[in-house]
Amino acid sequence: MKFYPNGTIPEQANMYFVYGDGGTGKTSLTK
């Protein structure tokens, strides 16, 4: 899992977190 400073998530990566984790969105960032 990659982490980005100050929540600067690339658009493509953000879409991966939202859909790639069952649509849980932000919760996937805390894993």
Please provide a written account of the structure:
- The chain has one domain.
- 32% of the residues lie in helices and 0% in strands.
- It comes from Enterococcus gallinarum.
- This is Phage nucleotide-binding protein.
List keywords for this structure.
1 helix; 32% helix; mainly alpha; globular; 31 residues; Phage nucleotide-binding protein
Brief write-up:
The chain is mainly alpha-helical and about 30 residues long. Helices cover about 30% and strands about 0% of the residues.
Give the helix/strand layout.
Blueprint (H helix, E strand, L loop, with lengths): L10 H10 L11
Q: Please tell me the overall pLDDT.
A: 55
Strand tally: 0
Principal-axes geometry comes out as globular
Low-pLDDT runs: none
Overall number of domains: 1
Biggest sheet details:
none
Number of alpha- plus pi-helical segments: 1
Radius of gyration: 9 Å
Assign the structural class, choosing from mainly alpha, mainly beta, alpha/beta, alpha+beta, or little secondary structure.
mainly alpha
Q: What proportion of the residues is helical, as a percent range?
A: 25-40%
Beta-sheet strand percentage? under 5%
- What is the CA–CA distance across the termini? 8 Å
Output the helix-strand order: H
